[in-house]
Every structure is written in structure tokens, then in C-alpha cells.
TrEMBL record:
It holds the Pfam family CbiJ. The keyword Transmembrane does not apply. One of its GO terms (molecular function) is precorrin-6A reductase activity. It comes from Methanobacterium formicicum. It comes from the Archaea. NCBIfam families: precor6x_red. This is Precorrin-6x reductase. PANTHER family: COBALT-PRECORRIN-6A REDUCTASE.
């Protein structure tokens, strides 16, 4: 069976690793960064395509590689990728399965501010920071201490611009992946070198709390990416520090209605194997 696995998460790597040990299953994966390509290859994918593909491009990939099953394991916030995958598979009659991380149940706290867009998140952050306009005239570059505190951005480098367009970049601490793209993007948006924390992985509440304390964080911005995205450890750290946290909730994707969606890796892998009729290699 020829599979297309649209990757981009740690869950995708686990799925690729499990399926690559199955007889008669050939895994073609997609990733949106060179780092993602390397991870998918190391996980056992037979071939990896690098890029963000629209509907027509995905249809071409499905046809050229005789794909018999499409597994969408993209990030919960990659709604466009999921919509494209569904439209492409439906157009060609290729079966589609979705893996989606279970949602994080937010604790009840006045410090937690759930929103459904980054624009709304910025408005709340501006209120918390007491900002009425963009601080273009302020030069914070030589100041180690910010009486008003800083903003800790934990929502991915591609959403960083929402903050820098409305607030002084000097007030933003960005934790991003240790990749050239992420660091260059942060610098292009005006984030000072010392405010860029380049790290990969999920971290404990204690570690996140220390980071918030060291950078004098007044408010945290994150998104609801599920347990494997470390959402709860970020929120708990903020609560422990009595720091407000603005959480952008994942988008609802209308096209997923009626589709088979899995919340556990093992269940998805079992479903694929049952369809293939193969057994794990001994």
C-alpha cells in the first residue's frame, strides 16, 4: 500500500516510524521545512517532499505516486493544509484519515484568557500591558529591566508578527525552534538578539516558570496545541508565576465533518494496518 503522510508534528514522526516497519507499506511524506524533511527521513519515510502544497499540487502528488491512502498528521493550526488535503483526496476518491491531538482542557482561572484569533489575543495583551499605541519612540535596547514586564511568545515564529505589528519588539521574548529560518524571521521582525530563545522540545512547568521569571514576563501568548505540544506545562507555569496567559484556541475545520479522525497514534496505525492486511515485521 502506498501512503502519503502529511507530517509536521512529533505525532507524525511516531506514525511514520510505526508504519515503516510494516510489510507492503510504502511511506511518502511531506514536510514544510528542511528540518522536518530530515526528521521524517530519520523516522523511516521512503521519500519526503518539502513544501506547502495547494489542492492541485496535492492531487498531482497523489496521482504520480499511486497513493492509496492519505494520512493528514499536520499541526492542529495548519487548517489550510488540512482543507487542501481533504479537497484533493475527495476529488480523486483517495481515502483520507486525520490524526488530531486531543484538545487541552483549560483550568478555570481568571489568569487564563482563551481567544479564537491572534488579533483578539493581541488586543488582550495590549490591555494587560497597558499599551495604547505602538511604542515606536521608545528605545528599550539598553535596558535590562522593564518595569512593565515583557511578553513571552510561545506560539510559533510564523505568528510572531501579530505582536510586533502592534507592540514594540523590544518587549517581546520569542521562544522559537533553533533553525536559521526561525532566528532570521525573529530578527527581521525586530526582536532583539537577547530576546530570542532558540530551543526545541517540550519543557516542564518548572523550566517554563524559570524562563518567565528570568525575563520578567508579564503576559504569555501560546496556542492550544495539545499535550504533545506542551500546552499544559506552559499554562501551569504561568499560573504558578501568577502571570496571565492568553491561549489561542485551535480553529474548527468544517471540512473535517464526516471524516474519520483519530486522537491516538496506536489506533490510527492499527486502522492503516488493517486496511493494508499486512502484519508487523518480526
Amino acid at each position: 500500500m502506498n501512503l502519503l503522510v502529511m507530517a509536521g508534528t512529533s505525532d507524525a514522526r511516531h506514525i511514520i516510524k510505526d508504519l515503516s516497519t510494516v510489510d507492503d507499506i510504502h511511506v511518502l511524506a511531506t514536510a514544510t521545512t528542511t528540518h522536518g524533511v530530515e526528521l521524517a527521513e530519520k523516522s523511516g519515510a521512503d521519500k519526503v517532499l518539502n513544501g506547502r502544497f495547494n489542492v492541485e499540487e496535492l492531487m498531482e502528488i497523489l496521482m504520480d505516486n499511486d497513493i492509496e491512502l492519505l494520512l493528514d498528521v499536520t499541526h492542529p493550526f495548519a487548517s489550510a493544509a488540512t482543507q487542501n488535503a481533504i479537497n484533493a483526496s475527495d476529488s480523486l476518491g483517495v481515502p483520507y484519515l486525520r490524526f488530531e491531538r486531543p484538545c487541552t482542557e483549560l483550568p478555570e482561572s481568571d489568569l487564563i484568557h482563551p481567544v479564537y484569533s491572534f488579533e483578539d489575543a493581541v488586543e488582550i495583551i495590549r490591555e494587560i500591558m497597558g499599551v495604547t499605541g505602538i511604542s515606536e519612540g521608545n528605545d528599550f535596547s539598553d535596558s535590562e529591566n522593564f518595569p512593565g514586564g515583557r511578553i513571552l511568545h510561545l506560539a510559533g515564529v510564523n505568528t510572531l508578527h501579530y505582536l510586533t505589528e502592534s507592540l514594540s519588539p523590544d518587549l517581546v521574548v520569542a521562544r522559537v525552534l533553533p533553525m536559521v529560518y526561525s532566528i532570521e524571521k525573529s530578527l527581521e521582525l525586530g526582536i532583539p538578539h537577547r530576546n530570542i530563545v532558540a530551543m526545541e522540545g517540550t519543557f516542564s512547568s518548572r523550566f517554563n516558570g524559570i524562563l518567565m521569571e528570568e525575563f520578567q514576563i508579564k503576559v504569555v501568548l501560546t496556542k492550544e496545541s495539545g499535550q504533545s505540544g506542551g500546552t499544559m506545562s506552559k499554562i501551569q507555569a504561568a499560573l504558578d508565576q501568577e502571570v496571565p496567559v492568553v491561549v489561542v484556541m485551535r480553529p474548527e475545520i468544517e471540512e473535517l465533518k464526516g471524516k474519520l479522525v483519530f486522537g491516538e497514534v496506536d489506533l490510527l496505525v492499527d486502522e492503516v494496518i488493517s486496511r493494508c492486511g499486512s502484519e508487523l515485521k518480526s
